[in-house]
Amino acid sequence: MVRIGAEERRTRLGRRHKLASSCQAADPVEAARAVVVLHATDPATVHLSVAARVPGSDVAGTERALYDDRALIRMLGMRRTVFVAPTELAQVIQAACTDDIAVKQRKLLVKHLVEAGIEGDAEAAGQWLRAVEESTATALSLRGSATAQELSQDEPRLRSRLAMAAGKTYAAQPYVTSRVLFQLAADGRIVRGRPLGTWLSGQHQWSPAEAWFPDETGEKPSADEARAALARAWLESFGPGTLADLQWWTGWGLGQTRKALKAVEAVEVELDGAVGYVLPGDEAPEVEVEPWVAFLPALDPTPMGWKERDWYLGEHKSRLFDTTGNIGPTVWADGRIVGGWGQPESGEVRYQLLEDVGSETAALIDREADRWTKWLSGVRVTPRFRSPLEKILSQG
Q1: Element of type H or E holding 233
Q2: In angstroms, rounded to a whole number, what is the distance separating the alpha carbons of residues 51 and 47?
Q3: What is the C-alpha radius of gyration for the chain, rounded to an integer number of angstroms?
Q4: What's the pLDDT at 216?
Q5: Bridging pattern class, strands 336-342 and 204-208
Q6: Closest by CA position to 209, among listed 222, 223, 193
């Protein structure tokens, strides 16, 4: 069994994730392909992840790829998380992950509809939901694009209220609007479009999927075919990785993960005592890259690409992750995390190193912090999920 050590994995990361300066991406689509998908739970992450990989990129260029060229799509995918994916990968993600999520979410929503008293039993609640979905989809088709508020004007049943956590101190009665739109999106029927506010906004217009991709042709892959294609894409970008890494990243069951690795004929390699996998022919060492540093945003796809992270995270987890497993902004040097960053009210990028990196690397990091301060140009980004170190650096 070929051994691939931590140093080799870090070299691969710098080259394949477009973080070393000699290997950076030409545009937002290439940046997304380099890491399979961009995390989009926090809308700022998409733009900052692109800016870390595309020299000279700006918000307008990423929005153009998303909403004008439509070469990227914002969609629900692995682990019930929202991502920005290259458009050609959308059907693969849908069949490999989102279809299963849609089935589970529909059952859960029907259960909540019954609990809220909207219908008396699951069968009636399911019929009610399907009727509201069809009416909402029709209204959206007539409008071309619309906000949730506009659609609730067209379909008043979207203003029905659920009863969440009844009897608890945190009980709530939200409108069913967002849940119905979430279900339509999970079923691949509607697409998230432009944000309603700035690039930091999490509210979007919606469009019918057929209007967004009118030229889409070809047969949708089967679930097994799609899982194999997604496993291949992940191994190309993140390999070597373990079975646990791929299972965690995709949200698949153990059997599904093993079957996908078998389908792509993944090759076993040794990872410092653990068994990892690469694609056939990818066992050889990667071409070395020059010394590099990078400032990555919260939830960037690079640190969120593996479950087992010691080889690039070291002892820094407690400072850089929140309590639910979301990573904050990080500072990288040569394929490992060496610190974190944040922004106080004044807007400049402030960082803290968590280990000694030497004077030359420290100077590169200082210059990179200045570059990010200029790129953000006074815009303050507060991550949706905040790490302990980011909170400290953002004070003052």
Answers
A1: helix 223-238
A2: 6
A3: 22
A4: 60
A5: unpaired
A6: 193
CATH class of 99-212: mainly alpha
Domain ranges of the chain: 99-212, 294-393
DSSP 286-354: PPP----EEEE-TT-TTTTS-S--HHHHTT-HHHHB-TTS-B--EEEETTEEEEEEE--TT---EEEES
Taking the complete model, does pTM exceed 0.70, yes or no? yes
Distance CA 245, CA 231 (A): 11
Q: What is the mean pLDDT of the chain?
A: 95
The residue count of the chain comes to: 396
Which residue is it, tokens 């496993």? 231
Distance CA 226, CA 229 (A): 5
Residue 368 has pLDDT above 80, yes or no: yes
Longest dimension (CA), the chain: 69
Q: What pLDDT score does 163 carry?
A: 84
| Residue 190: pLDDT band with limits 50, 70, 90 | very high
